[in-house]
Design goal:
- The protein is mainly beta.
- It contains three helices and 20 strands.
- The longest helix is centred in the N-terminal third of the chain and has 19 residues.
- 33% of the residues are buried.
Amino acid sequence: MNTESHSKNPFSQCCHVFFILYSLLISFAPPCKAYWISAPQADSLSRIYFRKLYLFEGRPKRATITISTTGYCKVYINECKVGTAPFLPLRNQKDNKAADFTFDATPYLQSDSNVVAILYSPARTSTTKQQKQIAISFWGKDHRGKSFAYSTDASWLCREANSRLSPEGLEIIDGREHDNPWKAATINDLALWAHATEDSSAIPIDYEAKPIAPRINHIDSRDADDILSNNIPASHPFYGFFRATLREARRGEKIRIGNVLYICNGTFDEQVFPVFGVSFTNGISVEGKRQRITNIEAVSIEPNESIHY
């Protein structure tokens, strides 16, 4: 067989080029499915910490992460909050349909260990626990340029967060249980964590989806006279939430600001605001020792589909 003539065969060359292009396409193609996970020990009103530690030999060259959720979530990579939205997505309380969000995870990655962490909340109060809470696809190129792709599974860890909903929709936040290390590479309270429950059915991923996300567009501070009254007015009706700063509160002391019941941790300064809730309001009521409040802000939220995630 004439090897030289074979190498110049147009059909052979065409097949070779096609094979190269096809290989490149496959190597850059994202995974098309992910798997739902949920917390086995939580009830229908619980908010959940989810986390997974990924180990790499070097810093990945690039990575993308897509999160699907039936509720609300905040996304962290290596303890850094991903995106500019205070939470995702913006939805009405009767809506618990799955929403997909895609982020460029590359700027948040590092060599060796990378932690993806999610704070999840149910979208509404219900007596029925949502069995499909989050589904994540994490994929990209490692430091050698080799493709990797991971989906949520039973190896993810989860535990109840320090906030939850009451059956009436009140948001209860226990500042005494505030735990920043839950999204760190090392966790000291491993006994409190359980493995997630994996749903056996895979879901398709929409990488182009742009669900509505909240964006902060204005912050209005209130003065001391307003703070000392039972009802704190807004300068005008707005869509958003109030954020209060407390000082010298005692550990275990309770204060209710609007729809948030906060249990103080006793540190010098504490901030109280809804973790996920927003609403139309022209003021807010306060129950408890109002003199603990040193500052309160009206934070206006704007719905936006093109927000930088």
